[in-house]
Amino acid sequence: MTQSSRESTPVPPFPIFRISQSVDRYMLYDINVITWLRKTHNILGVLVGTLPQIPSQNVFLGLPLELLPEEARLLIEKNLAFLVDDLDWHGNGINSYDLAQKKELVAKIRTEGLEIAKDIQRKKHARSQQAMKRVQATIESKSGRHASTSHDPQTKEISEDKTLFSERQSQEERSTQSPSPTPIIEVQPWTITPATSAPFLPQPTVGTPLRLPEVNPSSLALFKHLHSHGYFMTPGLRFGCQFSVYPGDPLRFHSHFLAISAHWDEEIDLLHLVGGGRLGTGVKKGWMIGGVEEGGHANDSATPNGDKKNELNAAKVRTFCIEWGGM
Which listed residue (133, 254, 272, 309) is catalytic? Predict the structure, then answer.
């Protein structure tokens, strides 16, 4: 997606692109939206974009940002975003072009490639001119030193003998090293392959609502509960949990809890509790388990207009933190 270099506040609702392969994935491409969500709504997601020439590296990741299903669901329910099917959006956008629009698009890309080629040619010519000036300055400095030594009585006779040859040599050097105007060459436009399709497609708009992201009701309830208390959350797979819970931005804080969700009457293996408590204590975190209290229920059929009901359900979530005291 094309991004403006200057940060600006996005106007909600903004699109979340659903990419469906074997499972649904929810993507954001606008850096302004991503920054605003991080600062204002404690939404982190995971950067999944890699370098085109080194696709297997996983250190310097960038756009797009993949949202957790819980994050995408929360944003849609709060009317901050709407869901767009990426495949349908591309297909409808490309099919909407007629022949004249396609020719105009090709001409625009060709013009952009021509401007790039001209800019590179200008820079190349400037570098060659600078190199010629440096060579000319070196020749002039050498001729100046030769003129100063010609006043010495001991070298006067030698300089007079070499005058004829030195003048001829200096004239040859000047003729070969002096800058010459660069001949005008017809510049061929560079071939540009657009890396993104967004500039050539109409902006997505709120249309027929798509189905909400499918999430586990207990997991969604726990996520909403922690999010309503100002916590930041990232996927917790590397710690064997659902969410790594941070008291602030992960760039400033370490995570405090390893959170998993469960139903209120769900039976939990004691070894699971012991293992989770030991794992959390071993990495200096608390192992948190939470779920909807009996008598409340996770709103799995929430609509974007059901904010008050969602807050009520989030208030009925109970959490428990387990730590191992024998280490």
Answer: 254
